[in-house]
């Protein structure tokens, strides 16, 4: 089977992650998958697999889950320590017709308890470390059964004890029924559970299949995104069907990342915006860990132009580019644009791109007040295509409030230029009176003050825009440099400096702006 044939099959029948490893093995059984850590569920498997071995492990784990009592149509919540085996276990659940519910290991016990209750007595697939986190959650009342992926726990079924269970035939879920459930970032409270179907997952591959076509050779793709995120489904599917060697990474520390990149020399890097910001310093590493990279890609959030420019200048590849995709869990990839080495630093960070070709999403901006959307009067950003998630599990009304026929309201505000570029200015809930765009201010000041490692503008207790800053090694900010850089933004209050470790973040490392703003109401702050 050729990758293009498998891809056409997915477009017709939907993407079933339980069948994907087997399908990829049929395309090329020798495609290598390299890990930067051991698999908790199969520690003997090692860190270098072929896709055929990967498919075999998924089949084995599916048999064990069946022996543990999991059956088709059953919801299986996976909440475990961050590890690449999460995606493998999700594929195993899918392979026997279960509905995968991926919960981030970053979620706290209270949030997990709320989500378990919302799902309605699912099977919980976890491990010892996370079951300790859930010690005060009444799992006996909230779950049908508990299965451990590593170790043993009283009252739970251990997958390790089910090795050698008889293999079972795959169960294919209906193309428009729930297949994988992920959750939103939770920047405004308890995350929403986003329902993806085989059809919506398959459609989302369309624009990204063409992006990977930029790579003519079968070079390594490094994937460093949360294993629980809907983005992981697309990233793994595309790389394996394209027969690209995969470097699947858990570690995000610059030292560990540099070691892996120097050793494996990836040509394509997919990572979180905040991870890429953290890695900027590697541009000066004499080993040139980014020297082999042809394409940097990020999908989760807008990224600062200065970061893109520095990474691109660290590449030795001719025509190296940074491809940014704007989207969200509910809609997948909506628009995108490429940045190049000699122009990225001059880019407007608020311009997130144009509609992508080939059956991708359509975009419109709707007025908030009856006047045409513009730079000074941003409107609601809405998306329409068949890749939009089916619903919010257990919150249909909430889903319906964002849906207007085929159009989905993203919660972001912005405008389109006369050339068609979509400019995203802010989340609607983060808008501050008298501020055109908090994100634009952040872009500008981060480019002017390289000593800043993070800058977030939030609303203070008197509705004033307060810049919260972090610096390398928490070094005190030079206020004279700040005043000179921020002179163009007289509406800003004095900056507040905090340790970067104190920034409240989501599972995808986005800053929880509302939680940060609440700090100003709950406790006095020391200005920088």
Please, could you describe this protein's structure?
- The protein is of the alpha/beta class.
- The chain has 17 helices and 25 strands.
- Strands 1, 2, 10, 11, 12, 13, 14, 15, 16, 17, 18, 20, 21 and 22 form a 14-stranded mixed β-sheet that branches.
- Strand 24 (465-471), helix 16 (479-485) and strand 25 form a beta-alpha-beta unit.
- The chain is globular.
Spell out the key features of this protein:
17 helices; Acyl--CoA ligase; alpha/beta; eight-stranded mixed sheet; ATP-dep_AMP-bd_enzyme; AMP-dep_synth/lig_dom; 14-stranded mixed sheet; 22% strand; 528 residues
Helix amount: 25-40%
Individual helix count: 17
The Rg value, from CA coordinates, equals 23 Å
Beta content comes to: 15-25%
Global shape: globular
Average pLDDT number: 92
Largest sheet: 14 strands, mixed
Return the structural class: alpha/beta
Uncertain runs: none
The span between the termini is: 61 Å
Overall number of strands? 25
């Amino acid at each position: 089977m050729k990758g293009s044939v498998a891809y056409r099959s997915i477009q017709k029948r939907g993407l079933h992650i339980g069948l994907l490893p087997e399908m990829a093995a049929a395309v090329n059984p020798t495609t290598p998958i390299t890990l930067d850590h051991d698999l908790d569920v199969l520690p003997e498997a090692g860190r270098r697999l072929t896709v055929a071995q990967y498919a075999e492990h998924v089949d084995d784990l599916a048999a064990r889950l069946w022996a543990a009592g999991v059956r088709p149509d059953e919801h299986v919540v996976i909440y475990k320590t961050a590890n690449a085996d999460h995606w493998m276990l999700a594929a195993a659940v899918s392979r026997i017709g279960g509905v995968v519910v991926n919960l981030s290991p970053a979620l706290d016990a209270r949030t997990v308890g709320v989500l378990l209750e919302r799902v309605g007595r699912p099977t919980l697939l976890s491990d010892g470390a996370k079951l300790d986190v859930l010690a005060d959650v009444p799992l006996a009342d909230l779950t049908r059964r508990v299965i451990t992926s590593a170790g043993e726990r009283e009252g739970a079924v251990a997958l390790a004890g089910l090795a050698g269970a008889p293999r079972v035939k795959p169960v294919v879920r209906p193309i428009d029924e729930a297949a994988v459930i992920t959750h939103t970032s939770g920047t405004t409270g308890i995350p929403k559970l986003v329902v993806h179907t085989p059809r919506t997952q398959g459609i989302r591959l369309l624009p990204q299949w063409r992006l990977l076509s930029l790579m003519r050779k079968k070079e390594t793709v490094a994937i460093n995104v949360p294993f629980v995120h809907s983005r992981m489904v697309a990233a793994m599917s595309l790389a394996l069907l394209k027969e690209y060697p995969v470097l699947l990474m858990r570690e995000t520390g610059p030292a560990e990342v540099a070691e892996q990149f120097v050793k494996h020399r990836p040509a394509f890097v997919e990572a979180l915006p905040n991870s890429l910001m953290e890695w900027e310093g590697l541009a000066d590493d004499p080993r040139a860990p980014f020297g082999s990279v042809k394409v940097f890609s990020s999908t989760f959030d807008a990224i600062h132009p200065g970061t893109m420019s520095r990474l691109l200048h660290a590449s030795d590849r001719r025509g190296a580019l940074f491809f940014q995709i704007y989207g969200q869990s509910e809609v997948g990839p909506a628009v995108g644009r490429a940045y190049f080495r000699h122009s990225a630093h001059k880019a407007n960070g608020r311009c997130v791109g144009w509609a992508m070709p080939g059956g991708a999403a359509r975009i419109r901006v709707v007025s908030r007040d009856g006047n045409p959307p513009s730079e000074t009067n941003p409107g609601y950003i809405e998306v329409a295509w068949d890749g939009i998630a089916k619903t919010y599990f257990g919150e249909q009304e909430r889903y319906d409030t964002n849906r207007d026929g085929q159009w989905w309201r993203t919660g972001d505000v912005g405008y389109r230029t006369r050339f068609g570029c979509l400019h995203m200015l802010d989340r609607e809930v983060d808008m501050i009176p008298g501020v055109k765009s908090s994100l634009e201010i952040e872009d500008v000041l981060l480019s002017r003050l390289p000593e800043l490692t993070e800058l977030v503008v939030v609303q203070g207790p008197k509705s004033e825009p307060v810049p919260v800053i972090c610096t390398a090694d928490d070094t005190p900010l030079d206020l004279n440099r700040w005043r000179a850089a921020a002179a163009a933004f007289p509406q800003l209050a004095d900056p507040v400096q905090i340790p970067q470790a104190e920034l409240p973040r989501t599972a995808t490392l986005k800053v929880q702006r509302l939680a940060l703003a609440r700090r100003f109401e709950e406790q006095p702050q020391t200005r920088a």
